[in-house]
User: What shape does this take?
Amino acid sequence: MPIIPVAERTWAAVTPASTYLFGVETDTGTAPDTDAGDVRLVQWYWGPRLPEAALAEAALPPTPRQRSGFHDPRDIHELLPVDGGRRWGVPSLQAFYEGGVRSVELSFAEAVAGTDEIELVLRDETYGLRVGVHVRCADGTDVVERWVTVANEGAAPVRFGRLDSGSWAVPERSAYRCTGVYGAWAYETQLQRAELPVGETTFTSRTGTTSHRANPWIMVDAGDATEESGEVWAVALAWSGSWRLTAQHRPEGDLAVTCGFGHDGPSVHLAPGERLRTPSALGLYGDGGYGAASRAWHAYTRGHVLPAPREERPVLYNSWEATGFDVSESGQLELAARAAEVGAELFVVDDGWFGTRDRDSRGLGDWWPNPGRFPDGLTRLFDGVRALGMAAGLWVEPEMVNPDSDLYRDRPDWVLHHPGRRRDTMRNQLVLNFARTDVREWAIGWLDALVGEYHLAYLKWDMNRSFSQAGWPEAGERADMLWSEHTDGVYAVMDELRRRRPGLRIESCSGGGGRVDLGVLRRTDQVWTSDNTDARDRQAIQHGFSYLYPAGTMSAWVTDSPNPHTRRRVPLRYRFHVAMAGVLGLGGNLTAWSAEEFDEAAGLVEAYKAIRPVVQHGRLHRLGGTPGLTASAVQYVLDDRVVVLAYNPFSPDRRAPRRLRLAGLDPEAVYEVVTSEAGATAPVGSRRHGRTLTALGLILPSFLPNGPDYRSELLELRRVRTP
Ligand code: GLA
Assistant: This one.
């Protein structure tokens, strides 16, 4: 029973490794001024799991620091600090009532408790606002889920400047360091780690999407965590629209992280009788360093987020890098024949198959096969694909329209726009307003028909521009709601499509990794990590990606050399070994590969299929180095199987470690090498104790100095004897 009552108005979310203690703060009588009736829901404790008998003693109000006539710091521990009363921090909830009244005043109404979920109900009686603060904790995970519901039971509309999913206090430490990712198109999920300055540090997206520029999660430690050890507090937001996450490092020394949907500017509108639920914010505490925190996120994503987590993702071939917009039946079938031969299991036709789409300036929105290119439709093409033993997939971009399209000529009012303002295009396209029910119905209609007619097993759902001039004239004072309701609409269409077509699998793409988050992963199966398919660049991207998201969601293609994005030449094996660390796919012009390359590729695809369950479902250990720059390795463990992929892009350092120390093994157990390219140092059939492998390590040829650039290797061990 993960949520347990501790004392009056005090509860604990008890997870395998942590305790999250919260409740209603009662007046201690220590306040110099009174705020009678003002309620504070507070987090008493968030850290290592406490014995049940100790829970009550931990639920004591901390002595407030530095109180004065100028400041009252108590809101740092609040689950939902409001803009109101004596609070000057970043509000998690800021409401504007009729007549310009602000300063929210909440009173506690009741707690509605279930076994793994509780709702703490608060009310602003004067204006009829009901606020539900929800805490949920599923069995077997260290992730605590929180969200907020608001219901307008008053007579006038309420507007919210900020309506976060909640605030999380990180316990007192003498310093705070933060880890997160930033990026850009073709440069996603770059890890950054820095001390949090005193002040407010905000990570945000204003694009209407999750965005490439930041990803909605943060990990905080006291400056002492490593990959293998140390306490880490993490917060992630499960949302695919604009978002905001602010870490407040107070001058008094405390730290709280508040996050939610939306960004500064647009407001949330709640008419009388309306109710709204925020997206979920997820908190995780662990004391095993970043590595264990990542593994806990991966387990949570597999156990509680992904719709079909147990399936193995197929090796797909995608035509984009080979053909661009130059799509034809014969050309695709030629690629399909090569793809099947090399071992692909799914053939995905990318952009260029529909409407008049022979370039990026026209056809988006006209979702029928290009009559010039496919006069008889796509049946022959996809029957051909299936005859080759592969499943069929198709690229779509449902939220977009080119002005040069039948759809736009017919429905110019369907795009985001403000009357009397320009409609700026990006990549020659405009954004369809998925907040509108008619747009959603149109999308579900053609998507369902397309999947049905061509028996599609897979859609790559793309989204290739940010919002601009984001107006919704018909919605009047609700217009700003498009910022969240667009995302709700995308979710609704995906959910309905999956409901109607249970066998369908979806890849989330937004110009590569612009829509990667725990919200979209609830209704998709994998994501297109980046349009940058250069293996070396990819290593850094995959490294940052792995902090939150499991390898089984990370699409990674092997494409041509030199790479079309970077012109870098990287050996085929290295390219494969990098892509094999996720969901392997192929994306190059296979018809131009030499016979040797082709044979080598076929062998590597086969090798991937053999290790696929371990990579896609196993526990990830990042084994050090700076991926893409210095020697590094990733390791996956599933039951008795251990897979290692090691890389050395180049080695100017003659003194770098030659041994790779493994992790996460049973020290007493014996492991046998079953696949090795390490030659004499780890021959197939050789055996080592877990402790030897983790404490001493293995000498890897690719880590030795004086070798060529781009050495990589695959090693597999199997636990053969347990103590
Ligand atoms: C985006 C995607 C690419 C490809 C193109 C097609 O950029 O990220 O993979 O699908 O669109 O236009």
Summary: The chain is about 20% helix and 30% strand. The pocket of alpha-D-galactopyranose is lined by residues 320, 350-351, 395, 462, 464, 509, 511-512, 528, 531 (CB under 6 Å). The longest strand covers residues 711-721. The longest helix spans residues 595-617.
